[in-house]
């Protein structure tokens, strides 16, 4: 198979000197198919429904793929994609359990298939086998696929000695109302894209690739605001209407890699986890009916930030450092002692830091008439015992937000470093 065309950086448009219709021999790329469709199909006229349908322009004048669809993320690299990639508009999280009788050999073959599929789809190509054509007309749309291993994977494959200590089960928290059927799993896959059909196409391909080697344990679907929906780039909002992610660690910070990724040397982690990270995945139900009964002022006191701008209640802009000691004229703390933003600050938790990269979810209305909606919380860190755990323990002891949320499922996964060229994800574990 001819190597796929060169992928571009995570947030850039394709290089002009890279052929947009390059693909393996005998396989049309999705971008090439888009051009073909533009030459022969019909397109909605510029005046929309009022003008009806108008013939598409000729092939010579075909409109190029919009940047939203053209953006591609590299599969191969030091770290797996989908960790530092900008938030994507659509996501699928799915956990698998190895089938009865499947072990290390079957797991290696599965990760090899998944890696091949991920590389092809992220480059805007079709799946190698039985492509469903769901994404036929689209470009890569910043598609990413990220793979991880759960605690149970290592016993199933006879690799217990290679299981990291950091993958020990998370402790129980008082806010937990966990559904075990929707928690943990042998294998975990995160799929993200800026187009819903591209994301679904990848999900189907991954499920089909699993074949008889693994079965789906649970699946969750999420979304974020689409890129370009706001007048200027800004921090995302969650379903409570709050700006969420203001104090996320940034790759430009000198200690970012140290806090988020396992070092290549000098670590207690096994060698196969070099340049990897640990993902904590929590389905957090938001009790929106109760939340929305609060006044805006009451909501801001719960969070500790202005709802409109994300600025701390102590003043300034979204990025202004919060003044935890500031009081009002009556001597009351401006940022309440149990405000969520106060409790979660790294400097209030021994420097504990994690990179939050969530998706919102809405799975319909319950029988009692309330929305089944909230946050698919995903956080990345070099060590969950020094990242997620201390912060969650402190939240357990008095977070004002806890009244309005419920943790319904949980998982912890070891996500190895990125695959090098001609290597599949997890190869250093499974063949080491």
UniProtKB/TrEMBL annotation:
Q: Which residues form the Dyp-type peroxidase C-terminal domain?
A: 235-419
Pfam families documented for this protein: Dyp_perox_C (PF20628), Dyp_perox_N (PF04261)
Q: Which reaction does it catalyse?
A: heme b + 2 H(+) = protoporphyrin IX + Fe(2+)
How cofactor binds (record note)?
A: Binds 1 heme b (iron(II)-protoporphyrin IX) group non-covalently per subunit.
Q: In the Enzyme Commission scheme, what number(s) does this protein have?
A: 1.11.1.-
Name its cellular compartments. Answer: Cell envelope
Please provide one cellular component term from the Gene Ontology annotations of this protein: cytosol
GO molecular function annotations of the record: ferrochelatase activity; heme binding; metal ion binding; peroxidase activity
Return the broad EC class. oxidoreductase
Domain Dyp-type peroxidase N-terminal, chain residue ranges per copy: 80-224
Identify the SUPFAM superfamilies for this entry: Dimeric alpha+beta barrel (SSF54909)
Which biological process annotations from GO are given for this protein? iron import into cell
Annotated region (Disordered) at 1-27
The UniProt keyword set, sorted, is: Heme, Iron, Lyase, Metal-binding, Oxidoreductase, Peroxidase, Signal
Q: Which NCBIfam families match?
A: Dyp_perox_fam, tat_substr_1
Entry function: Involved in the recovery of exogenous heme iron. Extracts iron from heme while preserving the protoporphyrin ring intact.
The family assignment reads: Belongs to the DyP-type peroxidase family.
Q: Specify the protein name.
A: Deferrochelatase
Provide the species name: Streptomyces albiflavescens
